[in-house]
Design a protein that fits this description.
alpha/beta; FAD/NAD(P)-binding domain; Polyamine Oxidase, Chain A, domain 2; 7-stranded mixed beta sheet; 21 strands; 20% strand; Zeta_carotene_desat/Oxidored; oxidoreductase activity; Amino_oxidase
Length: 474
């Protein structure tokens, strides 16, 4: 059988290995870390009343993803999928504080500028400006599209809906999901087809409404009861007797001429195909000796997640729905987003209240791509004590609780930091990442995949992995 070597045991690497063994290939997975999962990881609390486990990384996937559905069906998990509480999320905004997020939208771009929650978030004057999109011709944007000019989320929204809509509706979502400034994010990267539909309909809001109406009915996201991290365990189980998965094994060199993979111990493996399921800077380091790459992709500032286990009766009524996204312009909170885990997922709520009546889990995230590189902004490099103090203060303010009461009810906490899993989405870095992809392709031996190459989210990653050509050279 052809030998496929997969480097990296995150969701991309394990999915690629699963696909390769199903195609009849001999597969070896090499992972530098002692565990699998990458950005899918559990946070387990050993509490006096018992154990409580929630996700400390990716917690769900886009339900529209047929590739994820097929993967879960193959693993025997599709019948277990659950959807979130339909109450929806909120926004935390300057001047107005916490308000419900618009129900009809895409990446915060409103599909109905006249909706009550849009007016509440923007104010009457800015809402009138946003509604101008419905009657303003798209001619200038049609010209830009015809000329092939790139379009960022920020410039389109500011032009069509006004700067207040950009700051209060779109920036919190893009910053919360991508840790990025909407002015740096390519519109086609996160909302493919939106601009073309908007040109056709003469309005971005109308295009958003059309796309949302055409989406399959049901919840936008799904997960597994117990947490999305169960997917990693299922993939490892599926590979256990069909592939060799080795942890603590760092790859130090790739040689397309001899088709050999070298590890840190000097061991050499001969491979008919290599799949690099690592971040773009790591892929660059392995590819550079045998290619013409000259500019290394850059890591962003990273993010930190603070998971709080709290006994708080005030959270029983889910005062902010399933959580909230925070405008970067807010000055009285440092978090970019907060998820009320036990409100969002019924399984989590049941697990928590089985331990204590008013027990809740809140997860707050810190760090944006727009943060200075010196680590001065709250995020990946912030000390644990400082992060915990911020998290309790932010959670109280954002969820309408007394800070002293929240602190008194704090049962446990965990801090998880992510850096390599977060691709920097600036145009320059995107160009460098594409160069890495092209360099790998020219070897006729190496494929690259993962969030840096596919985009953020499990749906994007599994779609990218599914599209990899699995035709090992004999």
């Amino acid at each position: 059988m052809p030998h496929v070597v997969v480097i990296g045991a995150g969701i991309a690497g394990l999915t690629a290995a699963y696909r390769a063994v199903n195609a009849g290939h001999h597969v070896t997975v090499l992972e530098a870390e002692p565990t699998a999962g990458g950005a899918i990881a559990p946070a387990t609390f050993d509490l006096p009343e018992g154990q409580l486990t929630v996700d400390a990384g990716a917690e769900a996937y886009a339900a529209r993803s047929t590739h994820m559905t097929q993967l879960l069906e193959g693993l025997g998990l599709a019948n277990e999928l659950v959807t979130p509480n339909p109450d929806g999320s909120w926004l935390y905004l300057p001047e107005v504080g916490a308000v419900p997020a618009p129900k009809l939208g895409m990446w915060g771009i409103p599909g109905d500028p006249a909706a009550a929650e849009v007016i509440q978030a923007l104010g009457a004057e800015a809402a009138v400006r946003a509604a101008a999109d419905l009657a303003t011709p798209m001619d200038a944007w049609a010209k830009r599209r015809a000329e092939g000019q790139p379009v960022t989320v920020g410039e389109l929204v500011a032009d069509r809906f006004g700067p207040v809509a950009l700051e209060r509706l779109v920036a919190p979502v893009v910053a919360g999901v991508h840790s990025a400034d909407p002015n740096d994010v390519d519109l086609d990267k996160i909302a493919p087809g939106l601009l073309d539909k908007a040109i056709q309909r003469g309005s971005v809001a109308k295009a958003v409404a059309d796309i949302r109406a055409a989406a399959p009915p049901g919840a936008a996201v799904k997960t597994l009861p117990g947490g999305m991290h169960r997917l990693i365990d299922a993939l490892l189980d599926a590979l256990r007797d069909r592939a060799e998965v080795r942890f603590g094994t760092r790859v130090t060199a790739l040689d397309p001429a001899t088709r050999t993979v070298t590890t840190q111990t000097g061991e050499q493996l001969t491979a008919n195909q290599v799949i690099l399921a690592v971040d773009a800077p790591s892929a660059y380091d392995l590819l550079t000796p045998s290619t013409q790459l000259t500019k290394r992709p850059a890591y962003g500032t990273g993010v930190a997640l603070v998971v709080l286990v709290i006994d708080a009766p005030g959270l029983d009524v889910h005062p902010r729905g399933t959580g909230m996204l925070v405008s970067p312009a807010v000055t009285d909170a440092h978090a970019k987003a907060a998820t009320h885990v036990t409100a969002k997922w019924q399984w989590a709520g049941q697990a928590a209240t089985s331990l204590a009546e008013h027990r809740h889990v809140i997860r707050l995230s810190y760090g944006r791509i727009t943060d200075p590189l010196d680590g001065s902004a709250p995020g990946h490099d912030t000390a644990e004590a400082d992060l915990l103090a911020m998290a309790t203060s932010d959670a109280a303010a954002m969820f309408g609780l007394e800070h002293e009461q929240l602190q008194a009810g704090l049962v446990a906490s965990k801090i998880v930091r992510w850096r390599r899993a977060m691709p920097l989405t600036t145009p320059d870095n995107t160009t460098r990442i594409r160069a890495v992809q092209e360099a790998a392709r020219t070897t006729n031996w190496i494929q690259v995949t993962g969030a840096w190459f596919a985009g953020t989210g499990l749906a994007a990653i599994t779609q990218h992995v599914t599209g990899l050509p699995l035709n090992p050279l004999q």
